[in-house]
Amino acid sequence: MILISRKTIGEAHEEIVRVIAERCEGVTRITEDGETTYDPEEPVCIHIDSPMTSPMKSSASLFGDGFSDIYQASLYTITKRKNDGTDAIYTYGNRLCDYPVASISRKNSGQSFIKRALDQMMEVIGYVPASSTAELTYLGDGRLNGIDQIKKSIIDRLIANPSSRRAIAITWVPDIDLARDEPPCLQIVQCLIDKSHHLNLVCLFRSNDMLSAWGQNAYGLAHMQKHILNAINEGRGNKGEEPLALGWLETISVSAHMYFTRDQLELMKFFQKEKSKASFRSFQRT
Predict the structure, then answer these.
(1) Which of 24, 185, 191, 203 is catalytic?
(2) pLDDT tens string 130-150
């Protein structure tokens, strides 16, 4: 495992790009989608001591402040589905705050009113007519009425029990994601309160683009951590308890990589900044 610890997100982002490039030594790999990548072929763990401290983004990143602010909000809010063909396959906010729940609806078309009434009465005692048909649909995932894991599993749980190790939320839905080519990269988020009364956040990615995506991911997760902290402190205040402080953020990327061909412009910007830093360090030593 590659381990990196830095004070800020911006510093850590530049360091992991440098480390992966050095580890791969110019050797690329072709993914199942035909993309050319730098792939160190081992998980990457990045620990950020102060996630809301500047620089929260590297100046080599191509994403502006406007995009970053829209993205960070999408991690802990629901994006309602329009059902007009423009909806995203998934959003992290929909999976974390509106987790899909399977719902079975029975079809009663063609039945008389008396027959439907009798069937409904029999269902109360567990009898389902052999002629019944049903349709499996999903609530949530941007359709509302799903499970708000951020509130119920993390915020409410840590207000009730600050020592809980069960303040966790997931994005993977087997019934949906096993058959999809683009399942969520972020899989698990878990909050922990330490002995110093800090709220810490650990996040697991099954797959993570460390060049173009990780910086935005970490930026958004830091804001989600602050959102959770504020909600927990509101609940603690109502109980007359002292507020928590923002703690560290840690991401674990099981399959970490950088897209060498697709994101060559951004990669060159990171390399140029690293070269400038190296030149400055050399100047300081003279």
Answers:
(1) 185
(2) 666 666 778 999 999 999 999
